[in-house]
Amino acid sequence: MNEEKTDGDLVAEFKRGAAAQKEKAFAELLRRHREPIYQVCRRLLNSSDDADDVAQTTFLKIFRALPNFQEEAEFSTWAYRIAVNESLNFLKAQKLRAALSLDALESDVKSDGERPDERIERDETRQAIEDAIAALPEKQRAVFVMRYYDELSYEEIANIVGGSVGGLKANYFHAFKKVQEFLKRRLKQER
Q1: Considering only CA atoms, which of 184, 107, 187, 105 is closest in space to residue 145?
Q2: How many separate domains does the chain show?
Q3: Over the stretch 55-106, which tens digit does the pLDDT of each residue have?
Q4: What is the CATH number of the domain that holds 132?
């Protein structure tokens, strides 16, 4: 029976293997983690093209840093941290303040036979949520996305962005309140 190798097994193969073995191990890590890393970049950058670029940069950094990976965290946590940092660095460098994409939420909400007024209302709600999240400071935005959309634990988020669990809980609480307040203000304006 052929058991699937763990990420740890693949990292070990990469570190000790010959060129062909390294390439095979990294290709499998890439296959497993390409989509989650792309998605976190996409949510933080709100652009498919930018997310593609940042995800590529992330995997290049992972490839270069993998020989020195100390395995103090899971490979996925380490890779996720690199993706978040690369995305935040990209935002700072480009001074982007784009909203998060809620494409997944939008596709879940769509239904066959949706009335035009329902679609307009859904689109307005989605845009309001995107605007609210875009207005958050970068660190709060990252914590909010990882906790609310990716459903990561505070411990996992702490491993990715650093900081204490208590501090991250406070960041999430403040981000959540800011999103609520933003949406309340938007609703009052629309009435």
Answers
A1: 105
A2: 2
A3: 999 999 999 999 988 888 889 989 998 999 898 888 777 643 333 334 434 4
A4: 1.10.10.10
